[in-house]
Amino acid sequence: MDTSRYDYHLPKELIAKYPLVRGTERLLVVEKDSGQITHLMFKDLLSFFRQGDVLVLNDTRVIPARLMGRKESGGKAEVLLLRNIGITNWRCLIRSSKKPKIGSKLLFSGNLAAVVEERVGDEYVVSFSHPDQVLKEGRMPLPPYLEREPEEIDAHTYQTVYARHDGSVASPTAGLHFTEESLGAIRSADVDLVYVTLHVGLGTFTPIRTPTVEEHVMHSEEYAVTEQTARSINEAMSQGRRIIAVGTTTVRVLEHLMGVYGRIVACSGTTNLFICEGYRFKCVGALLTNFHLPCSTLLMLVSTFGGYEPVMRAYREAIERRYRFFSYGDAMLVI
Predict the structure, then answer these.
(1) Where are the domains of the chain?
(2) Under CATH, which number does the domain 3-62+153-334 receive?
(3) Residue 214 burial (CB < 10 Å; 0-12/13-18/19+)?
(4) Within 13 Å, how many C-alpha atoms sit on residue 147's CB side?
């Protein structure tokens, strides 16, 4: 399948550079069976829940993963932390004028330094001199399409209100719309709220660079599911109740477990599940998401769930009606 099938033109001014007040965003609703599209506000989301629905959210927390430093030679070096793999070691991406050599040293503010220990594909393993200082020196890793440096506001607005477990280098942005009050209203409507954890990494945001979808290889990302969450979802599915996933990361955890075990189990591990056209969903019955980049694995997942034609038509309408796109943008509900 040609990757360009998922391309679209987005006027640059529709990329949301800053967030609105949480919960005041717009909501585009796509009914996948009929293809009907409705334009509402996020506060209207509650009207689409049914008694007994299970709303599944990703409670990962974004870490200050972006470190600005320099090489011993003086050249600039930017490090994006991906995963802690030991007391002092992290897997990371390094951006500099020349690729760093094994054994070279990177210097950061204060007395923090790192030695490049290994290269694995496009990633590096580095060892930090003072591991307790690493996250203190880091900045919020805002997506490059925002074209700005992180500001004080982002420490709050780029986290969901229910973020609990450190580990992501990008926010599960479908959850950014919720407030404590809106979550409380959902609970009061007899909707079960449960949480999974998927630490957002390269698997989520790496762009597809292959000419065909089938050639793309997903990076693995770490997940964890509790016994309470597994029990709630399995019970709901056995009773024919609907599972609503908040975000594509949540979808990937649930569908990975269904594919491996045939049910949701309490466990932790990694997944590189790539959901694209032809995939048959085994758990998720509705999806709340944001508007995603052209030719991205996220857009492919949403199009697979909602149907290619309805979703791409929804994107065209969203652009015509000047919706806000990407991380700090508006929301889409596919039912």
Answers:
(1) 3-62+153-334, 66-137
(2) 3.40.1780.10
(3) exposed
(4) 6
- Sign of the CA dihedral running 194, 197, 201, 204: negative
Confidence class for position 205, pLDDT limits 50, 70, 90: low
Which of the following CATH numbers is that of domain 66-137: 3.40.50.1010, 2.40.10.240, 3.30.1490.20, 3.90.550.10?
2.40.10.240
pLDDT digits (tens, 9 = 90+) for 64-118: 999 999 999 889 999 999 999 999 999 999 999 999 999 999 999 989 999 999 9
Distance CA(190)–CA(241), nearest Å, equals 12
Answer yes or no: same fold for 3-62+153-334 and 66-137: no
> Contact, 208 vs 298, CB < 8 A?
no
Tokens of 210: 């292959």
Non-local (6+) Cβ contacts of 174 within 8 A are 246, 247, 248, 250, 288, 289, 290, 331
pTM of the model: 0.95
Question: pLDDT per residue over 38-65, tens digit each?
Answer: 999 999 999 999 999 999 999 999 999 9
Per-residue CA distances from 249 to 146, 153, 241 (Å): 21, 24, 21
Position 183, amino acid: L
- Arithmetic mean of pLDDT over the chain: 95
How far is Cα 158 from Cα 60, in angstroms, rounded to an integer? 12
For residue 69, what is the DSSP state? E
Contact 63, 92 (CB under 8 A): no
Q: What is the DSSP string of 70-135?
A: EETTS-EEEEEEEEE-SSSEEEEEEEESSPPPTT-EEE-STT-EEEEEEEETTEEEEEES-GGGHH
Question: Which one-letter DSSP state was computed for residue 139?
Answer: B
